[in-house]
Amino acid sequence: MSVEKLGPLDTAVSVDSYECTIAVECCVFGFQENELKILLVKRSIEPFKNYWLLPGGAMMEGETLSQSVNRVLNDLTGIEKITHEQVACYSEVDRHPIKRVVSVSFYALVKPENYPVIPKSYISDVKWYGLDELPKLGFDHDRLLHDGLEKLRGNLREHLVFGELLSDRFTLTELQELYESILNETLDRRNFRKKILQMNILEPTDEKKTGVKGGPVLYKRK
Amino acid sequence: MSVEKLGPLDTAVSVDSYECTIAVECCVFGFQENELKILLVKRSIEPFKNYWLLPGGAMMEGETLSQSVNRVLNDLTGIEKITHEQVACYSEVDRHPIKRVVSVSFYALVKPENYPVIPKSYISDVKWYGLDELPKLGFDHDRLLHDGLEKLRGNLREHLVFGELLSDRFTLTELQELYESILNETLDRRNFRKKILQMNILEPTDEKKTGVKGGPVLYKRK
DNA sequence: ATCATTCTGTGTATAAATTACACAGAAAAA
DNA sequence: TTTTTCTGTGTAATTTATACACAGAATGAT
Predict the structure, then answer these.
(1) Which of A40, A141, B5, B117 is the 20 to 30 Å CA partner of B182?
(2) Strand (E) positions, chain B?
(3) Are A58 and B121 a contacting pair at CB < 8 A?
(4) In this structure, how many other beta carbons lie within 10 angstroms of the beta carbon of residue A163?
(5) Cα–Cα nearest to B25, from B67, B58, B62, B74
(6) pLDDT band for position A1 (cuts 50, 70, 90)
(7) Residues 108-147, chain A: which have Cβ under 7 A from strand D?
(8) pTM score, two decimals?
């Protein structure tokens, strides 16, 4: 029986079906010093030794891709369960110079200060990079990052997405700065507040942020 | 060396890394009798014998996913190269009752009348279904179809997408009916024409469609 | 050939959404 | 206490989306 004649999902009954390594790669975005950052890891082995990469790793037996993402990021940051969203699947045969690997990419939103990052396994360094100081990444990760950022921006325009990018109490100015940082454009303060508030997903608390002029009130998610 | 310690894409140097069957599944949409149709195949073997499914099949060695889609659909319809777009990746461990299969889904837009469909391999029947007469699909293909349709609708609202759904000459009414069929809502004729024409991607030809009252002019893509 | 029918093709008025914009008040810093 | 800097708010102008009706062209019926 040739593989060519297989019907959908018929590989279950086939002996000569092709199997392939699947990896997850993750654009982990954080908001730090009023700037959108991306978590990169420095690879310590060939190929692409000393290149910076998106964190990722192979899917293991019995895992869903989502579980792989959680495992990989938990190893790296200690984050237990990290909300993430699928971006795309990459299958060019030569994207890994040695072995065939199909990767599924994700993005995730975290608060950097909550999670100290620790180099591990084949990683010699870990760093939060600003989007304007990015090094050339290894493999095809430049493209993965680009696509991940576009996906995040697209989602931002539709719903309100901020994962764990902010603390659970935040000012509207902080939220606006987050938006500006992701979209890479400046927004009008009054229009932004109007738009966000009429989404009806935030509510003001009776606290104010201290240490900042104007005494802005803190909001939380409903 | 345990798999757990693998860095990103490090499976190249690993011996015990897990490999998995990857399949593509395709929502093939066509526009027929003024209605959006989806191409389904009837499976003739267990599991899910006699269930209708999205056409699909396993990725083969040396193929990109895109090439797999083209091969699978070429087998089924004779279409040489079919434009398609990635929708999502599905990795639940039990989505195939017998073997682990990770599927990547796509949608494609074709003109049914151009391509007679022929049952083959593990397929006992092939049929274009209207969206309002869908059978319960096998595996998790109900979900895949739902997601594919949502993706198509989302794309339609942003750009003008019509792949090969229409002939190369078409009237604006035909295009509008296509839109209405995909979005499952009725549109105002004047507003639709205004919107489409100011996209500046169509141009009128000097031909008119015959056999239809009113003598509508034929347009083509710029 | 004429008439009735049905579809095409077009513009304007209204409503809704987006954008532009300025000043008074609160907290911090000097 | 004064100055500085940030917060918080409303309205007018613009743009975009929506609602809506009638004359002309081709077909089909007689």
Answers:
(1) B117
(2) 19-32, 35-43, 52-53, 56-58, 84-90, 101-110, 123-130, 202-208, 217-221
(3) no
(4) 18
(5) B58
(6) very low
(7) none
(8) 0.91
Measured distance CA(B33)–CA(B43) in Å, rounded: 26
Q: Which of A5, A6, A9, A155 best probes binding to B when mutated, by most B CB atoms within 10 angstroms?
A: A9
Interface test with A, best of B3, B9, B46, B91 (most A CBs within 10 A): B9
Question: Which residue minimizes Cα–C1' distance to C18?
Answer: A191
Per the CB < 8 A criterion, the answer to whether B59 and B65 are in contact is: yes
Task: Provide the pLDDT confidence category of residue B36 given band limits of 50, 70 and 90.
Answer: very high
Closest CA to B58 of B19, B13, B3, B109: B19
The reply to whether A157 has its C-beta less than 7 Å from any atom of strand C is no
Return the closest-CA partner of residue A222 out of A198, A200, A195.
A200
CA of residue B43 to C1' of nucleotide D15, angstroms: 53
Contact A56 B92 (CB under 8 A): no
Residues of B in contact with A21 (CB under 8 A): 11, 17-20
Helix (H, G, I), strand (E, B) or coil at B44: coil
pLDDT at A134 over 80: yes
Residue B5 confidence class, pLDDT cut points 50, 70, 90: very low
Cβ contacts of B206 within 8 Å, gap of 6 or more: none
Give A161-174 pLDDT, tens digit per residue: 777 899 999 999 99
Residue whose entry in the numeric block shows the structure tokens 């996209």: B199
